[in-house]
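pasting for the record
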Amino acid sequence: MRTRTLATGLALALLLAGALVCGPAEATTISILDLGDSGSAGDGTIFLADPAPTQPSTGTGVFEPFVRIQRSTGGGGGLQNGFNTDAKEPDVNFNTKDGSDWTRSVRFGELETVSVNGATYYVLQLDANQKGRASSGANRITITDMQIYIGSDPDLANPEATGTGAGGTGYTGTPFGDIASNGLLGLTPVWALDSATNGNLSVVLQASIWDTPGQGGSGHGDLDVFIPSALLTGGPDDFFVLYTEYAHGNDGFEEWRFNAGGAPVPEPGTALLLGSGLMGLGAWGRKRMMR
């Protein structure tokens, strides 16, 4: 694995006295509704709103996601789910955007870690796409579950529509079900938002926190997820699959990227205090794709 060290000015949120700890049966929500908001799951995973994203560069592919999930036509409560594979069809992996050039299989060796104060993390970045201004409840989307699978099975790269699992997707869990009903092609997730450690955890995100022309919302990273590197293990040639579920999606698609080689390099920024016992992540500049 390649390791990138964040500059001194990028102090990762060390959730100390105010840390959120989720019990195994507890239903908990982390709210990312304002600049610099952060929260921590019981397993040490940190969720953080980028406090000051840079103005984006225009042009297709600048953001370089590895999965796009499009809400279902007709609403259905804004529920949407899916996972990254080389199959780009909703009948294979749920609501994955049909024909997207930016949904693909990923090798675990493509991911880098960042090092902060002696701790290392894998970082996933979400670009959410919601209607409404930052002050509107319509602009919020809820991540009801995230699951990560790592394995050598080639079907993780391109599951057959006729395979086992819900609707031929290979997913053997119950979408939007309880935390115990997880599975993809016979695997259990190596990490999950809903787990015995985290409880039944959801993340509510305001997709246009900044509400400033050219900042936040579509075409920018809205949420950074720092997963302790010790929680994700696998060989460099194993496949890395991210499954996500959302509620209240009302516009376009949601997409994820990671800090891989060749992606825009995070730029040091000014660290800021997030609150009592919390040290915040400074401005992490990133170029973004404009839709």
